[in-house]
Here is the input.
Amino acid sequence: MNPPALETFGPRLCICGPSNSGKSTLSVALGRKLELPVFHLDLLFHLPNTNWQPRPRPDFERLHREAITGERWVMEGNYFGALSERLDRATGIILTGNEPTRSLFRYIRRTLFEPNRPGALEGGEDRLNWDMIHFIAIEQPRKRERDVELLRRSGLPMLELRTMRELNACYEAWGLER
Here is the structure.
């Protein structure tokens, strides 16, 4: 795989994709390489020091709006309810892979062994959760094509990384460090 130059995506990148597909780690690596602030939508959506309790909707919308008004950023996460507003400001999209089995493995590994992973909720406690396993294995794959179409319709430069191998090729080609 020979990915396009990072400059193709401009200074405001949206990193979207299934849970546990490498969005947070990629965002941190891109932010470091390009000297861009990184926003994790999970952290804007959930209250710190809780077990992933959502913020009141108006608070999330305000935090999201404040983040996207910046001139330069990397923002990872989906939250398709706020997607159109985000895409109106974005200059490029990177869509991470669609490998449910690998995502399940990554979910189990990070939940049990990576408490300080990128995108972890401050003061939150990750636990294996059957609803999350169902979401990763069943619900996300069903929504994939709809989500891809929404992103494609934006007309923004977009890179679709279907596998972890393709994602790793980007790390190498762009000189990113995890």
Notes: The radius of gyration is 15 Å. The first strand starts at residue 12 and ends at 16. The chain has a mean pLDDT of 93. The longest helix spans residues 130-152.
